[in-house]
Design goal:
Elements (H helix, E strand, L loop, with lengths): L5 H13 L8 H8 L3 H13 L3 E4 L5 E4 L8 H8 L22 H20 L4 H11 L9
Antiparallel strand pairs: 1-2
């Protein structure tokens, strides 16, 4: 089952902010880079701001900035800010309690799904936005220089 794109696009936006040299970026610029709409970016920036990861600068030349150093923003922080952290969805309707499988399936699968979620969270906690920005720079696949 596919997940939403919020996490990937939020990491994209934060990496762009990290490489902007401290220059505030407009949602239109971030949207262009991520090939999405400014409304999508503004929604993500609102969530990221609520989580203390970004801040706005008003006025001419304003836009969004990182609220703290990129090396202090873990991918787990981004994930928790923009995604539903319940990684696995359960049945829409409660399984049949009178069935040998239905009466036990949630309790049987629960520990495995909890371990899987914790493994994901552990992995995301090891990487920062600074790491992603450094990897973007290392890959160096720019067709043209970034023009913010």
């Amino acid at each position: 089952m596919p997940t939403s794109t919020r996490f990937a696009v939020a990491v994209h936006a934060l990496a762009a902010l990290a490489v902007s040299g401290g220059k505030p970026l407009r949602s239109e610029d971030l949207a262009y880079s991520a090939n999405t709409g400014p409304v999508v970016i503004r929604g993500l920036l609102s969530r990221l701001s609520d989580a203390g990861l970004t801040r706005s600068q008003l006025g001419a030349g304003g836009g969004t900035l990182l609220a703290k150093p990129a090396k202090k923003i873990r991918l787990l922080d981004v994930y928790e800010a923009v995604e539903d952290t319940e990684l696995f969805s359960m049945h829409r309707n409660s399984p049949c309690e009178n069935c040998a499988v239905g009466g036990n399936i949630l309790e049987a699968i629960g520990p495995t799904l909890t371990r899987a979620r914790k493994a994901l969270e552990n992995e995301l906690s090891k990487t920062t936005i600074a790491d992603i920005a450094a990897e973007v720079a290392r890959l160096g696949k720019f067709a043209v220089p970034l023009e913010w």
